[in-house]
Amino acid sequence: RKLRTYNCVPVFLSQRQVKRYYEGYANNTIWPLFHYFQSLAQYKDEYWNSYREVNEIFKKAVIKRADEESLIWVHDYHLMLLPQSLRLALPKSSIGFFLHIPFPSFEIFRLLPNRKAILEGLLGADLIGFHIYDYARHFMSSVLRLLGFDQHSGTITVNDRVVKVDAFPIGIDYKKYQSMLKDQVVLDELKQLDDFYGECKVILSMDRLDYSKGIMSRLEAFELFLKENPKYLKRVVLVLIAVPSRVNVESYKHLRESIESKVGNINGAYSTVDWAPISYQFRDLPFEKIIALMAKSDIALITPIRDGMNLVAKEYVAAKQKRNGVLILSEMAGAIDELPEALQINPNDKRSIIIAIKTALNMPVAEQKLRLRLMQQRLSDYSVQSWASDYINQLELAKTIQVKQYDKMLNSEARRQL
Question: Across residues 245-252, what is the average pLDDT?
């Protein structure tokens, strides 16, 4: 009933489906493989069967409420079979698909047993969107090698139907971050943080607890930084926020144990009576606290080993309206293309992380301001609202091109018959 007030309709799944479809195929098969953790990917028939089953459930839910005139936008790796099944049910509808995670290179994607079915499912869409062009290129390469359909200027012709493939880097609600910095709850929280940390430099590390985020490598680099730079003891603190994620998946349970053990070891080795090098929290913070923490932090340390986009990096930049700060960002995050002024690091190179931390701690204020201003301008120009409008406009255009192409083929066929 509550969802109906937002014009939303729930799709209910059984416990078995959640375990095999969501925890299973989506997050134990697709997620690790598409993030290049192929050794963690599990290929089980029951996972795949449940994935097909749930995609069919979503199809039935959609066609109850859609018709041939509908514009349908399907999101993410949980529903990669849905575009094709919707195409068969509603052949004239405008169907878009957007993938919010990386699409891997062909050499990785080909490891997936159900690879052709996934590609065929996606090609049911009129427009397939990715965060960056690299992912689009990987997708088109896999389509060519596995299905034999070539692309020309980002379009693929599939059985006389044109499919458009393009990049749409998702933005954030930039104005919301600007306005929240004036919120009294945020200001009160910010004052408490100032009083608590005093002159200590704050390095913020905030992610979902996920092996793709590179949290362990980040901790190991920070440990080495403290060992090699004792002058920063009691002058720097790493605030590590790990947001609970997929807590029932075994690999995530092991990761949490490893992270908490490492945090304990570092704090045990370097803590004093009045200072601990790491402030660790395993929880999801209220939005006001997140904004205040981002505004307070002198450095954001974001080092994913592989990430589709990474909006935390963009949110940190947006939150630095009145205070300075430095963004350290992995070159493996999709966001790096839009945030070139960040200090770029290789997440597998602990030495590059240490150098970036030292550079950030000593960066002149004028340089911090310049880097932030350039990134903020870019983010404000292409917000999440701009991203959505851009995608919808391109989906409508793709459908128009498709109709023209179809009419042209009909006319050609008619001329041949004459």
Answer: 85
Asked if residue 85 lies in contact with residue 124, where contact means CB atoms within 8 angstroms, the answer is yes
Structure tokens at 371: 């880097």
* Whole-number Å distance between alpha carbons of 310 and 213: 9
SS3 label, residue 96: strand
145, two tokens: 């090698």
Task: Please report which helix (H) or strand (E) contains residue 245, including its range.
Answer: none
CA distance 310 to 326: 16
Closest among 371, 312, 356, 37 to 218, alpha carbons compared: 356
CA distance 350 to 146: 38
Question: Contact, 209 vs 215, CB < 8 A?
Answer: yes
Q: Is the pLDDT of residue 274 over 80?
A: yes
Position 251 scores a pLDDT of: 86
3-state helix, strand, coil in the chain (%, to 5): 55, 15, 30
Taking each helix axis as running N to C, give the angle between helix 215-228 and helix 250-270, from 0 to 180 degrees, rounded to the nearest 10: 10
- pLDDT for residue 416: 59
Residue 389's SS3 state is: helix
Containing H/E element for 75?
strand 71-75
C-alpha span between 327 and 314 (Å, rounded): 9
In this predicted model, what pLDDT tens digit does every residue of 61-120 receive, in sequence order?
A: 999 999 988 999 999 999 999 999 999 999 999 999 999 999 999 999 999 999 999 999
Q: Does the reported pTM lie above 0.85? A: yes
Distance CA 409, CA 418 (A): 14
Q: What angle, 0 to 180 degrees and rounded to 10, lies between the N-to-C axes of helices 184-197 and 287-296? A: 50
Give the whole-angstrom CA distance, residue 369 versus residue 372: 5
Q: Report the percentage of the chain scoring pLDDT > 90.
A: 91
User: φ and ψ at 299, to 5 degrees?
Assistant: -140, 140
Report the 10 Å Cβ neighbour count for 302: 28
Largest Cα separation within the chain, whole Å, is 93
